[in-house]
Amino acid sequence: MLSIRFEGGNPERPFVDASVTSRPLTFADLPALSEAARQTYAAFQVPRLRFWSPLPMQGARSAFVDASPDMRVLAAPLSDLRDREVPAGLSLRPTRDATHLPRAASAYAQIDTLHPAHVEQARLIDEDTLAEAIAAGTMFDVLWQGEWSGYAGTLPETQLGLPAQVVQELLLAPHARGQGLGTFLSTLLARHLPDDGRVLSGTIHAQNRGSLQAATRADRHDLGGWWFTPLA
């Protein structure tokens, strides 16, 4: 199945998404798939095709020549994530309202200034999604040494066919970064979320090495990811 999509909702950044395939794609499939995408969406002058592969990142780099990685899915059963020892002074409390959203926006702006590529890798949770997660009881303020230091929140969804709590936001404010605390946000979320057999799952940009390391160190597993290949 092919569909037209727009990266970040930007109409100037279209791509064709290949989804609901009957089997995993191989490199040999890409010429025919690319031709179908070009013909079907010629009016959009689409430069890229996106597809899913369950292969590990290095394996997919070798298997799909000229493709570039997009988002990876990292997940693990909530029950497997709860036992890691958490640093004293790091905790979560339920988020009550959007009071700290401007501080979160400022934190993103500071991170984007320090790491310009971050602008394309992650976006702050929007106010509607924040309100939905608060209503679901799955949105939390991160506290470090008693001070508001970020957000950690999910929504119950199905991802890759798995019943999951899907991460909507994992943010550490600049004053709490660089101390290895990001790994423990998955642990704390697992302890605070319902014990109903779901997995903790979320997408992380393949170039966001800090977030990938934090997730893997928390024992979340890379289940695969999306790749872009040029249509020109």
Report on the structure:
With 232 residues, the chain is of the alpha+beta class. The chain folds into 2 domains: 2-70, no CATH class; 77-223, Gcn5-related N-acetyltransferase (GNAT) (Aminopeptidase, 3-Layer(aba) Sandwich). It is built from 7 helices and 10 strands. The protein has helices at 30-40, 57-63, 101-114, 118-121, 127-136, 183-192, 209-217, and strands at 2-6, 14-18, 48-53, 68-77, 90-94, 139-144, 147-159, 162-172, 199-205, 221-230. A 10-stranded mixed beta sheet has the order 1-2-3-10-4-9-8-7-6-5, with helices on both faces. It is globular, with a radius of gyration of 19 Å. The two termini are 20 Å apart.
Topology at a glance:
Elements: E1 2-6, E2 14-18, H1 30-40, E3 48-53, H2 57-63, E4 68-77, E5 90-94, H3 101-114, H4 118-121, H5 127-136, E6 139-144, E7 147-159, E8 162-172, H6 183-192, E9 199-205, H7 209-217, E10 221-230
Parallel strand pairs: 2-3, 8-9
Antiparallel strand pairs: 1-2, 3-10, 4-9, 4-10, 5-6, 6-7, 7-8
In total, the number of domains comes to: 2
Report the total helices. 7
Question: What best-fitting shape do the alpha-carbon axes yield?
Answer: globular
| CATH-level-2 architecture of the largest domain | 3-Layer(aba) Sandwich
CATH superfamily of the largest domain: Gcn5-related N-acetyltransferase (GNAT)
Strand content range: 25-35%
The CATH first-level class of the largest domain comes to: Alpha Beta
Strand order of the largest sheet: 1-2-3-10-4-9-8-7-6-5
Give a quick account of the main beta sheet: strands, pairing sense, barrel closure: 10 strands, mixed
Q: What portion of residues is helical?
A: 25-40%
Point out poorly predicted stretches. none
Number of strands: 10
First and last CA, distance: 20 Å
- Report the mean per-residue pLDDT as an integer: 94
In N-to-C order, the SSE pattern is: EEHEHEEHHHEEEHEHE
CATH fold description of the largest domain: Aminopeptidase
